[in-house]
């Protein structure tokens, strides 16, 4: 083979890797081998409830969070913009209407009835109080709001939000262009609040096509990055960005009978059960196979 043919073949193969998921698969599998042990033991999880249709939600289910004080889940939709309190089995409890918001992509529970919601189109997140009697939340009555760096790419803005209670840190992920993690330290205390746009914790996850959500697990200190495009969860050490494990959300993995079509939200409860929601209105529970 002459030099010209060799060069052409190399360019063709490299282009093929870029234009397909093969590069992602090779990269992920190599790193799976390097990181066999997981602090959350994600490799031991199996699907317990698969693709339960939440019939009280028509479309655009975009995020989910666990409230340890009520032992229930709170799901959010981006159109219409509503919050739903549901049981740990995905059954309806109540709906809370959101008014004045534009594109509510994710929700996280902070403490004592305080929640935070990320709005992609406004490039802001909002903090508000919600109790058992709350029926509506208007944007003009929120407890606090924060405007983030404006992203110039339409519909590729801030997608996920989670909270590290021990270190009083908010984590926010940008969907793509760039894949980015924002850390806001001393968020509640506001003592020397420090905001950083960190590439360190996302550099090792550049094989993921996007970030559709994230979850901070307080006991292990791990961040779980959720990718809709790559149909994958990546577990990362929140301090140094080290890869710990990966899980594929595809048919044949974790006992799944079908791919999760469009994974948009992720959370865990105090027993370590993993919850994922997918558009249009699908609900999944994964439990550790003891």
Automatic annotation (TrEMBL):
Note the superkingdom of the native organism.
Answer: Bacteria
Q: Name one Pfam family in it.
A: SdiA-regulated
Q: Where in the cell is it found?
A: Cell membrane
Give the GO cellular component terms, alphabetically: plasma membrane
Task: Name the InterPro entries for this protein.
Answer: YjiK/CarP
Q: What is its main location?
A: membrane
Name the keywords, alphabetized.
Cell membrane, Membrane
The entry's protein name is Uncharacterized protein
